[in-house]
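Human: Can I borrow your eye for a moment on a structure tokenisation matter? Separate attempts, laid side by side, tell us more than any discussion would. Could you pick a protein and write out its sequence and tokenised fold? No explanation is needed for now; the record alone will do.

Assistant:
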Amino acid sequence: MANLEQMAANRSDHRGIPRHGPGLLSGLLACGRCGHRMFTHHNHNGRGLRYVCGAESACYGVPICQALAGDALDAHVTELVLRALTPAALDTSLQLAEDLELERADQHRQWRLRLERAHYEADRASRMYAAVEPENRLVARTLERQWEEALATEQRLTADYESFQRRAPRRLTAAEQDAIRRLAADIPALWRAPTTTVVERQELVRLVLERIVVTVAGTTEVVV
């Protein structure tokens, strides 16, 4: 049971945390064959880095699922990350965020219309129930049930809208967008600076990537 629980934890989709050591992608890599998290392995007295999927090998003694050279993959991902963080790429992302904000504004408008309609229906049902003659019990019970259903619908829509608002990301201000653009121009220099630590580079990668799935082609070092 412990092995099964550990395997389930390895398949977790949560964002990997930075790990100490030279592996830039430690905690982010997932095996494209079995879905387990891949681990770092160092050889040649710590100078050689490899990413290894060995969870099932450790649990069941089967051959290692796959492994690949880490330095080449780290370099490739670094190039992609820095390319994604160039000012031009960020401008595209910020424009996309602006387009999404306009779409969310329209969604908010539709939600408000639905809430207004639900409130109207609940208020109308309340007035109809209040106006019925007390001796007309059958009609009163029907109207009371309709009023309760209208109130329940209004409450459900209100809760759904509040949930939608909580999930919606906060809109960046113009000052924040300008700060992002200025930072983007400095990122390559900061990345290559000798004072930048491995952990800091790992943290920067995690601002862009949540999970990387790799599959080695056959027994080669080619990754797809």
Q: What stands out?
A: Residues 87-131 form the longest helix (45 residues). The two ends are 33 Å apart (CA to CA). The chain is about 60% helix and 10% strand.
